[in-house]
Design goal:
By secondary structure, the protein is mainly β.
C-alpha cells in the first residue's frame, strides 16, 4: 500500500512541474535563402531565447538541414519560430507544429515567407 501511495505522489508531482530537457531537432531549410539564425519558443512564451544555430559554424543553405539542440519542456504542441537570413532580413511564423518522423525525430521545415 505504501508503494502505491509513493508512486501516486511521484506521478502527481511530476505532472505538475515542468522539467527542462535537451531535445535534438532537425531544421529543414526550404526558403530559397541561407538561414543564419533560428529561434524557437513555445507559442505561449514572450521570449525567443538563444539562437539555436549559434553553435553552427555556417549558415544553412536552401535544401539543407541542421540538427541542433534546444532546451524546452516540450509540453506545448505549437511553437513560434523566427529565422534570420544572411542579408539580415527575418520573418516569423506563429503557431507552427513540428513533424515527428517514424524514428521519433522532431523536425521543422521552413518554407519561404509569403511576400
Amino acid at each position: 500500500m505504501l508503494r502505491f501511495v509513493v508512486l501516486a505522489f511521484v506521478f502527481i508531482f511530476s505532472s505538475c512541474i515542468n522539467v527542462s530537457a535537451e531535445q535534438l531537432i532537425r531544421v529543414n531549410n526550404m526558403t530559397g535563402r541561407e538561414i543564419c539564425e533560428f529561434y524557437i519558443s513555445a507559442h505561449n512564451e514572450e521570449d525567443w531565447g538563444d539562437d539555436a544555430f549559434e553553435s553552427l559554424d555556417r549558415c544553412v543553405r536552401h535544401n539543407e538541414y541542421a540538427d541542433v539542440t534546444w532546451n524546452d519542456t516540450w509540453t506545448d504542441t505549437s511553437y513560434d519560430i523566427r529565422v534570420v537570413f544572411r542579408n539580415g532580413n527575418s520573418f516569423e511564423v506563429e503557431d507552427i507544429r513540428p513533424n515527428v518522423t517514424s524514428n521519433g525525430r522532431t523536425q521543422f521545415t521552413i518554407w519561404p515567407p509569403n511576400e
